[in-house]
Structure formats: C-alpha cells, structure tokens
Amino acid sequence: MTVEEIEKKLIQGIASITGCDLAAISPHSPFHELGLDSFGFVETLVFIEETFKLKLISTELTRQDFESIHLLAQLIARKQ
C-alpha cells in the first residue's frame, strides 16, 4: 500500500470519527487541529490497528509520528 493510499484511508477514518467533511482534512493538517478529543484519538488508534493490521505498541511510535496524517502514513507504510 502506498503512502497516498494510506493517507486516504486515514482521512476516511478520521472523518468518520470526528464527523468532519473529508474535503476539510488534508494529509498535512496538524493532528492537533483535526478535532480529536482523547476518546477520538483512542478510536483512531484502534482504527489504525484494525485497518492496517499493526500492533502500534510495538511500532515505537513517537509524538513526531502524529504531527500530521502524512507523517503517520509514512510510518504505517514502513511498518507494513
């Protein structure tokens, strides 16, 4: 799966969780501006694990990986 394909799936998942319009979410938007509260963030992590078949606890996530959807998509692409 390419980074662009992963970005699209992440945007769809985040839009579903937050109720935002897909067009309002850019891959380069800072994560903290996506309207996710702590529960929404946990939902996003579960979505990522289920969609991309990753165990996030073992991926050595850092705060920098969540600076944008694009950076997170790059991490997911490397771990698949």
Write the topology of this structure.
Elements: H1 3-18, H2 38-52, H3 69-79
Descriptive overview:
By secondary structure, the chain is mainly α. It has a single domain, classed as Non-ribosomal Peptide Synthetase Peptidyl Carrier Protein, Chain A (Orthogonal Bundle). Helices cover 52% and strands 0% of the residues. It contains three helices and no strands. It has helices spanning 3-18, 38-52, 69-79. α1 crosses α2. The longest helix has 16 residues, at 3-18. It is globular, with a radius of gyration of 11 Å.
How would you summarize this macromolecular structure in one to three sentences?
With 80 residues, the chain is mainly alpha-helical.
Q: Biggest sheet, open or closed, and with what strands and sense? A: none
CATH architect. name: Orthogonal Bundle
Based on helices, strands and strand pairing, what is the structural class?
A: mainly alpha
CATH superfamily: ACP-like
Relevant terms:
80 residues, Non-ribosomal Peptide Synthetase Peptidyl Carrier Protein, Chain A, mainly alpha
